[in-house]
Design brief:
single chain; seven-stranded mixed beta sheet
């Protein structure tokens, strides 16, 4: 099973669209878990919860600071799936049977902490897929120190250095993050500089974690 773990604020219609898109293109009889973290102080909260899928997928709690990394991490650690993929409310699933393609490609690495990269040809890892072994090894998807940006770069850096970043060709999931100019996107830009500084400061830690991972 694959779990889509995400967070959203102020964009209930975008989130509903992405979820419908993901399920529509998933393989028939798929076993997909979706966990989306919402802020209890979000003015749009009633719109999320009144949707037909609200009770099954949404988890409401206090706001965990600015940015999406912490709430996404919380959902990832609650996931039941053997694989966890970050789900953003500005994604678009393109490939039919995306979940089966991911699960089949990831199966040989079940017991090896691994990150899987989609969108063949793109240089940057976005919306990473990790297996249960990765979450067990690190105890998180993203370090709590990050607000939003560079959290996926942190994961990609460690996986690349340890030779644990595995591309999955033929699966495309687009991320239209630059199309939205709202409060959530603005906060991410504000925090970008601080997150970049943290990324630089963690270089030695990333090197050590990569070496440890490569030795497993």
């Amino acid at each position: 099973m694959i779990t889509l773990a995400g967070a959203s604020r102020g964009r209930p219609h975008h989130m509903a669209r992405v979820i419908d898109n993901a399920l529509e293109l998933a393989s028939k009889d798929s076993n997909i878990e979706i966990l989306i973290r919402l802020d209890e102080d979000d003015p749009a909260l009633p719109q999320y919860l009144e949707s037909r899928i609200g009770e099954r997928i949404y988890r409401v709690g206090p706001r965990l600071g600015r940015g999406a990394a912490r709430p996404i991490n919380e959902m990832a650690m609650q996931a039941s799936g053997d694989l966890v993929m970050q789900l953003s409310d500005d994604q678009e699933f393109i490939t039919p049977d995306w979940n089966t393609l991911i699960e089949n490609a990831a199966a040989p690495y079940e017991h090896i902490p691994t990150v899987f990269k989609l969108n063949e040809g793109r240089t940057k890892l976005e919306n990473p897929v990790v297996n249960r072994a990765w979450l067990r090894h690190f105890g998180h998807l993203y370090p709590a120190e990050f607000s939003h940006l560079y959290s996926d770069t942190y994961v990609e850096t460690i996986a690349t250095k340890a030779n644990r970043l595995i591309p999955i060709p033929g699966v495309t999931i687009l991320h239209h993050k630059m199309q939205y100019q709202d409060a959530t996107s603005s906060e991410a830009r504000i925090d970008a500089k601080a997150d970049f500084q943290k990324f630089i400061q963690f270089k030695d830690l990333m090197d050590a974690q990569a070496s440890e991972l490569a030795a497993l």
